[in-house]
Amino acid sequence: MGKKFDISLKNMTQEIHRLIHQDGLSDLIGGYLLIYSGILSLFNPFPTSELGSILELSCLSFGIALQIFLRRKFVFPRVGIIRPPPINRRARKIILAIMLSIILFCVVSLPIAVISPPFIDTLNAKLDSLDWKLLIYEGSIFIWLMGGMFFIFELFYAIWLKLPRIFFSTFLFLIGMIFGSTGVFMGIPLIYCQIIYLVTGCVLVIIGLHTFRNFLKKYPVLHEGENTIEGGFKMGGAPKDWSTDGRDSDE
Amino acid sequence: MSDQYEKIQEINNLDQIIHAKARLLIMSYIYVSDRADFRFLHVQTGLSWGNLSTHISKLEETGYVTIKKKIIQKKTYTTALITKEGKKAFEEYKERIMNIFS
């Protein structure tokens, strides 16, 4: 009857993280984002105006809203509201402390810097002498760098969860995003960049749909109070001789 | 001999609220994720709704968890949140168990 009774906290943490990724919605939305980026770069009717940016932002917001809607409609009624447990409580505290220090530094130092006239003069001088082409090039290096760091993080995460799909999806998403957005600066023709967006997006959507379909099949809709699990225990855990009235035989 | 006697005493001193099999499983899940939804606990532990509810009520009576309910798209979601006492009790329980087997 499934796996054996397991109360290892590490295994439980892994189990919860795996459950979060079982719905395939992140693949689906990642694919959608790539496809809409490809379509927009092909057919954006307002490529240089503010309307173009508004259109891009509204599509992005729609993707996020769609994910929230799908999660509420299909995932929560099946496995409940799951919150990812921290992988390492100590690491979380260190990251939080660093982030808080940066925020505190910005909050304290920025107003002082902005109100001082020498700062404004220096800022104006720098903005006047900026080489925008170089900035865009450096921007693409920044995207590569961030993408690389994210990829390494996801690689370790996938190994830790023993879930190769996460690694593969992240790889595809980054290939699409990085080559799609910065390919032009590497000499790749624009049309190929758009094709990269669309192809990687479509593959991700297919993976997401397949995973989502399997998820819906595996987990039926649960209504609190209605027993739908037939004496079986997912953890393989609770044996049938466990009490059903809240009292324990060993009490 | 005295060492063994101490370990037996230590077993007797274990928190019996947590030590019960079903509640240990429930508490472990709530401990690792700070809060756990009833549907999630039902799927993961395989306990029946009634059994789950009774065990969680007992944990709530002891002050180890608090219960919160919310409605999303006309469906009720009950969540059990671990309290400071619950966290402390679970950590103490874990430590005692480790001591017994050390």
Any overview of this molecule?
The complex is a heterodimer of chains A (251) and B (102). Chain A is mainly alpha-helical. The two termini of chain A are 26 Å apart. Chain A is globular. Chain A has helices at residues 9-21, 25-43, 50-79, 89-115, 117-128, 132-161, 164-182, 190-218. The model of chain A is unreliable at 229-237 (pLDDT under 50). Chain B is α+β, with helices and mostly antiparallel strands and 102 residues long. The radius of gyration of chain B is 16 Å and the shape is elongated. In chain B, α1 runs antiparallel to α6. The longest helix of chain B is centred in the last third of the chain and has 18 residues, at 84-101. A 3-stranded antiparallel beta sheet of chain B has the order 1-3-2. Chain A binds chain B through residues 5, 7, 9, 12-13, 15-16, 19, 72-73, 76-85, 219, 222-227, 229, 232-235, 237-238, 242-246, 248, 250-251, and chain B through 16, 19-25, 28-29, 31-51, 54-55, 57-58, 72-73, 75-79.
List the helices and strands and how they pair.
The complex is a heterodimer of chains A (251) and B (102).
Chain A: H1 9-21, H2 25-43, H3 50-79, H4 89-115, H5 117-128, H6 132-161, H7 164-182, H8 190-218
Helix pairs in contact in A: 2-3, 2-7, 2-8, 6-7, 7-8
Chain B: H1 2-12, H2 16-19, H3 21-33, E1 35-37, H4 38-45, H5 49-62, E2 65-72, E3 75-82, H6 84-101
Antiparallel strand pairs in B: 1-3, 2-3
> For the largest beta sheet of chain B, what order do the strands appear in spatially?
1-3-2
Q: Could you say how many structural domains of chain B there are in total?
A: 1
Largest sheet: number of strands, sense, barrel closure of chain B: 3 strands, antiparallel
Number of DSSP E strands of chain A: 0
What is the H/E string of chain B? HHHEHHEEH
**Shape call of chain B:** elongated
Classify the helix fraction of chain A into a percent range. over 70%
The string of secondary-structure elements of chain A, in order, is HHHHHHHH
